[in-house]
Specification:
Distance between the termini: 33 Å
Catalytic activity: L-threonyl-[protein] + FAD = FMN-L-threonyl-[protein] + AMP + H(+)
Membrane topology: Lipid-anchor
Largest sheet: 9 strands, antiparallel
Radius of gyration: 20 Å
Helix content: 25-40%
Low-confidence stretches: 1-5, 12-21
Number of helices: 9
CATH class: Alpha Beta
Bound molecules: adenosine-5'-diphosphate, magnesium ion
Strand order of the largest sheet: 2-3-4-8-9-12-17-18-19
Family: Belongs to the ApbE family.
Structural class: alpha+beta
Number of domains: 1
Function: Flavin transferase that catalyzes the transfer of the FMN moiety of FAD and its covalent binding to the hydroxyl group of a threonine residue in a target flavoprotein such as NqrB and NqrC, two subunits of the NQR complex.
Order of helices and strands: EEEEHHEHHHEEHEEEEEEEEEEHHEEHE
Cofactor: Mg(2+); Mn(2+)
């Protein structure tokens, strides 16, 4: 991941300033690093002696997830699969199968714009573990990378004995980066439930999920950021009501190449970084995984198609579009019930 970027603001948690655990009069905040970004767990009802143990459990679980499906770690299970040159089904974890299932489902509904096989293009444009290109990739380079992104080359097999991933082209490269934070967020929520914690807000990078109450018996609130370089400028506030939320934005993670702004979100139909004026897509869904998949998908397809898809799929969506020097927003009917003042 190029920069740590926070497109969502957890209200009342903005005072975070170091990686130590600390208590506030509004509960306990734990935080640390994972997947090239920061995790935060905000809990209301935890006993003091349990805190260090919980922090250890959280970090271990996130490290295991990272070692499973990171493409940045050469030793992760996913990196092994990507390097594997054969076509035999390879065993994968239940977590990875869950991400792939959801990614393929959203991929189908978007006609392939959300595409976890986009890895060769992501790497070509310098957003994977490889270095940024020194020049704009040419047509041939784009065409060869694009030829590896057809979802038909990947198969997920699941039965009572386990789950496997199979490829029929050796050089395909699966990239689960876009849904990893959402998955890890849901996974943290499950850990909280297992620990008997009922009032919590968990977040990994740009994905957040909360349950129960925050301080003073109030519901948790999360804010969508304005799409500017200024941190913590609030665009809108929501109450999640137990749902997951995720924002994808093209305004934080980019670099300049040959005078152009290169975004980390790739349009698989052109093989090039997106180049339209939808700058931020926020989705609220039952799970953070689902929200994290849809936000990227909507960002890829641009404002008008994103609106149509949100209406067709009854998604809770908040879009921010750049119009000249100004920004306009669009809110789907499902999103409106989450908005608060
Ligand atoms: P954001 O940084 O806006 O939160 P994510 O981190 O969720 O977005 O996802 C960005 C990553 O997703 C990229 O760095 C790349 O690895 C991957 N990616 C880029 N384009 C696509 C796409 N069309 N479909 C699936 N994954 C993509
Ligand atoms: Mg996403």
């Amino acid at each position: 991941m190029r920069f740590q970027k926070f497109l969502l603001i957890i209200l009342a948690v903005q005072m975070l300033n170091s990686c130590n655990n600390h208590d506030t009069n509004q509960g306990t905040i734990l935080h640390g690093k994972t997947m090239g970004t920061i995790w935060t767990v905000h809990i209301m009802d935890i006993k003091n002696h349990h805190k260090d143990e919980l922090r250890r459990l959280i970090q271990e679980q996130l490290d295991r997830d990272d070692n499973d499906f990171s493409t940045w770690k050469t030793n992760s299970a996913l990196s092994h699969f990507n390097r594997y040159q054969g076509s035999d089904p390879q065993p994968i974890s239940i977590g990875m199968a869950d991400i792939v299932t959801e990614a393929l489902r959203i991929g189908m509904k978007t006609g392939g714009y959300m595409n976890i096989m986009v890895g060769p293009l992501v790497n070509l444009w310098g957003f994977g573990p490889m270095q940024e290109p020194l020049h704009t990739p040419n047509e041939n380079e784009i065409a060869s990378a694009k030829a590896l992104t057809n979802l038909e080359h990947l198969r997920l097999i699941q039965d009572i004995n386990g789950q496997w991933l199979q490829k029929d082209l050796p050089s395909i490269y699966v990239d689960l980066s876009t849904m990893g934070e959402g998955y890890a967020t849901d996974h943290l929520a499950r850990l909280m439930e297992e620990q008997g914690i009922t009032n919590y807000l968990v977040s990994v990078g740009g994905a957040v999920l909360c349950r129960g109450k925050s301080s003073y018996d109030k519901p948790w609130k999360v804010a969508i950021q304005k799409p500017t370089d200024r941190e913590n400028a609030v665009e809108a506030r929501v109450e999640l009501k137990g749902h997951g939320i995720s924002t994808a934005g093209s305004y934080r993670n980019y670099y300049e190449l040959d005078g152009k702004r290169i975004s980390h979100i790739i349009d698989p139909s052109t093989g090039r970084p997106i180049n339209h004026n939808l700058v931020s897509a926020t989705v609220i869904a039952t799970t953070a995984l689902e929200a994290d998949g849809w936000d990227t998908a909507l960002l890829v397809i641009g404002t008008e198609r994103a609106k149509m898809l949100a209406l067709k799929e009854h998604l809770a969506v908040y879009l921010i579009t750049k119009e000249g020097k100004n920004f306009t927003h669009w809110i789907s009917p499902q999103f409106k019930s989450f908005l608060v003042g």
